[in-house]
Amino acid sequence: MFSNAALQIESSFIRDILAVSQQPGMISLAGGMPASELLPWPQLQAQFGKLSQGDLQYSLTPGLPALREQVAKQLVTDCDISGDEIMITTGSQQGLDLITRTLINPGDKIIVEAPTFLGALQTFQASQADILAVPTSPEGPDMDALTHCLETNAVKFIYLQPNFQNPTGFSYTLARRQQLAELARRYNVLIVEDDPYGALRYEGEALPSLYSMVPEHCVRLVSFSKTVAPGLRLGWLQASSAIQMQLNKFKQVADLHSSSLNQQLLVAFLQSPDFDAHIQTLLNVYRQRCDAMHNALSDQLGDQVSWQKPQGGMFFWLNLHRDGNWKPLFDSAIRENVAYVPGAAFYFDKPSQQFARLSFSNVSAEQITQGIERLAQVFNEATV
Ligand SMILES: Cc1ncc(COP(=O)(O)O)c(C=O)c1O
């Protein structure tokens, strides 16, 4: 009865453990969610009164012109683009889906980092693409492996996350970005740049997007889920008009347009002084939580795991020193009321059991300390 694609997609481990991580008493370091108590409900409520009856009407497929212009003017700061280069999506997940539908026939090749975002892997698997994985590192993807892959395969696109990657929290260096831009030109290959976390930088200087370096070889996806609210289901993509024309047809097929009411609400919020203040609050709170996780890990698990402190985003990527395997520890952790995501979930093939993803965004500093204490307890019990 079901299509091959339906049978091929695996349910997301992260979505599946959401129910477990919401059990009473559980400290969840699992989901990549924004802080619930900081969702800008009062600020959005204040803007709601400015909406009108017309905002409930059908609207244009690529998004409200006012929102596209506002995004281009206010949020794309590293290159000079107009609203025409922006398409509003129903979250970045839809952006991934539209690009994949537009470009991929079964058997076409896509390069991803290992590890990478699970939602992207699901989308690519659904398209029956041939997925090729190259290892990534704190500096960015392995250039030798990437070059070899491009030398030996006809590749449709490379899926990359230059800023505070999900799941590792790694951010590419400027030199690696320049090499990637050069590679895209040399091999005439498209880069799909997924950037939902770039606006959440707590340390260091912002680096230019790949789109700003090679717009003709790039589609960039940005989300409002981490900076405003995932429940609005809004994001945007930047792409040339030739690519947008094709994407537009699949957007019509998918949902005609993203919610016009939510788009109008977002325009009003972006234009109000509340928006910058909200981002500043997020940065201050997340910076403290990131520090709290780094300190708790150093105090409790410093001799058993290693990590690189992220400069932004929501994630720590823990490397287990011993012949480590996070999978069996997971059940004990759930019994101790602390949840994380075993890193194997983020690999397309050859899953490594040696890593775990911990998120600090939707837990208080106290909960983070307590959660890491519980995790240390699990480690101690496992070693006796
Ligand atoms: C790397 C990455 N891309 C895309 C998404 C999807 O975001 P959205 O809520 O905008 O669909 C996420 C969500 O966690 C993500 O981490």
How would the blueprint of this fold be written?
Blueprint: H1 4-8, H2 13-21, E1 27-28, H3 41-48, H4 65-75, E2 86-89, H5 91-103, E3 109-114, H6 118-126, E4 130-137, E5 140-141, H7 143-152, E6 155-160, H8 174-187, E7 190-194, H9 210-213, E8 218-223, E9 235-238, H10 241-255, H11 260-271, H12 274-301, E10 305-306, E11 315-320, H13 326-335, E12 338-339, E13 341-342, E14 355-359, H14 365-383
Parallel strand pairs: 1-12, 3-4, 3-6, 6-7, 7-8
Antiparallel strand pairs: 2-9, 4-5, 8-9, 10-11, 11-14, 13-14
Q: What's the CATH H-level homologous superfamily of the largest domain?
A: Type I PLP-dependent aspartate aminotransferase-like (Major domain)
Strand order in the sheet with the most strands: 2-9-8-7-6-3-4-5
Task: List SSEs in N-to-C order.
Answer: HHEHHEHEHEEHEHEHEEHHHEEHEEEH
C-alpha-based Rg, rounded: 21 Å
Shape: globular
Structure at a glance:
By secondary structure, the protein is an alpha/beta fold. It has helices at residues 4-8, 13-21, 41-48, 65-75, 91-103, 118-126, 143-152, 174-187, 210-213, 241-255, 260-271, 274-301, 326-335, 365-383, and strands at residues 27-28, 86-89, 109-114, 130-137, 140-141, 155-160, 190-194, 218-223, 235-238, 305-306, 315-320, 338-339, 341-342, 355-359. Strands 2-9-8-7-6-3-4-5 form an eight-stranded mixed sheet, with helices on both faces. Strands 10-11-14-13 form a four-stranded antiparallel sheet. A two-stranded parallel sheet has the order 1-12.
